[in-house]
Amino acid sequence: MKIYLASDHAGFELKEQIKNFLKEKNYDIEDCGAFSFAEGDDYPDFIKPAAMKVSQDTSSFGVIFGKSGAGEAIVANKFKNVRAVQGFSEENVRLSREHNNANILSLGSEFVDFDKAKLFVDVFLQTAFSGEERHLRRINKIKEIEQKNYA
Predict the structure, then answer these.
(1) pLDDT in tens, 89-145
(2) Which residue among the candidates 13, 30, 98, 99 is catalytic per the annotation?
(3) Which sequence spans correspond to the domains of the chain?
(4) CA triplet 9, 31, 79: central angle to 5 degrees?
(5) Structural contact between residues 5 and 64, judged by C-beta atoms closer than 8 angstroms
(6) Taking a C-beta distance cutoff of 8 angstroms, is the pair 109, 68 a contact?
């Protein structure tokens, strides 16, 4: 499983910690930036390449970071085949995978410390999509919206 990481300056430290955590677990990761702390950088510049890669490789996942995680999720959700969720609790992360087949987890360094981030990332990567008909039906409706709006 390929995991793409990305952050701006506000999420940089947490991204680096999670990158090392994932390396220790032998995940195949690719860091899409930022590659150094640069206060004042713009999160779309780093989230865009990660979301694009997840969009094109539908078997992959992304974990993205910012101050709140909200803007980062907004950018990621501009791409076809991406279902990014802002992680704020273990239950919300689990349900995002089981019900929505989310493939990008967005974390806000202002609200999620390293211990919570490790937990949320583990839950995200280890929870399978339920495949229930009602959830498939809803995801297919999302795909129809994508086709109409991004054709």
Answers:
(1) 999 999 999 999 999 999 999 999 999 999 999 999 999 999 999 999 999 999 999
(2) 99
(3) 2-149
(4) 85
(5) yes
(6) no
Span 2-149: which CATH code? Answer: 3.40.1400.10
Distance, in Å, from the CA atom of 131 to the CA atom of 129, rounded to the nearest integer, reads 6
135 catalytic, yes or no?
no
Widest CA span in the chain: 45
Tokens of 107: 């974390």
Q: Which of 72, 110, 135, 144 is catalytic?
A: 72
* Locus of tokens 């993205």: 64
Between CA 65 and CA 22 the distance in angstroms is 15
- Start-end of H helices in the chain: 12-24, 44-56, 70-76, 90-100, 114-126, 133-149
Alpha-carbon distance of 49 to 46, in angstroms, equals 6
- More confident: 151 or 29: 29
Encoded amino acid at 5, one letter = L
Active site residue 99: yes
